[in-house]
Amino acid sequence: MKFTAALILCFTITMGMGAFAQKIKKEGDLSFLKGIDKINIEYSFDEMKVGKYDDENEYLQDRMDKKNEKEPGTGDEWKKGWFEDRETRFEPKFEQLFNEYAKKSGITASKGLDGAEATMKVHTYFTEPGFNVGVVRKSAMISVKIVFVDSSGKEMGSLDITNVPGRDAMGYDFDTGYRIEEAYAKLGKETAKFLEKKVLK
User: Fold this and answer.
1) Contact, 138 vs 131, CB < 8 A?
2) Domain containing 49: what range?
3) What is d(CA 63, CA 61) in angstroms, rounded to the nearest whole number?
4) How do residues 55-108 score in pLDDT, each as one tens digit?
5) How far is residue 38's CA from residue 116's CA, in Å, rounded to a whole number?
6) CA-to-CA distance for 95 and 120, rounded, in angstroms?
7) CATH number where 10 lies
């Protein structure tokens, strides 16, 4: 009995941590950001892979069908929330944590920011929604490429940030949107910290 409990605990921790470590790969010269205090943000989710699905639409259709089969209409409502979460949860959370950790450099960044001297194009190309069914859980995870553009529209460089985890430390992340939201919080924090340490000093 004790062995079984230990095995379950080990499995839970392993699934929660994920199999891959977060990595940040920089390309180009981002030194142009020094002295800039306003950065506009643009978001995109085009051609995004989701979990084991190479096509996001396949994932959405599968989830919708299963939910609608159990209770008609719930799948359609879930799909609506999947897209709404981007503007209401993921993007604001990224900006909140980015600005919190970038304030030492005097930088403010947000979507549709007037008077910005640069733009961050945040493209999410992979999302692992994860799951939490109590005994067994798996963290959410996102991989994102952030392209930095100067005021003339020229692409100056990029950060490819892979395997950014999202979970609640206390284990109460039963909601898919919440898990992914926490991944964007982590993304905002790590992006700002990287720029502060590697670019803006």
Assistant:
1) yes
2) 2-198
3) 5
4) 999 999 999 999 999 999 999 999 999 999 999 999 999 999 999 999 999 999
5) 5
6) 11
7) 3.30.160
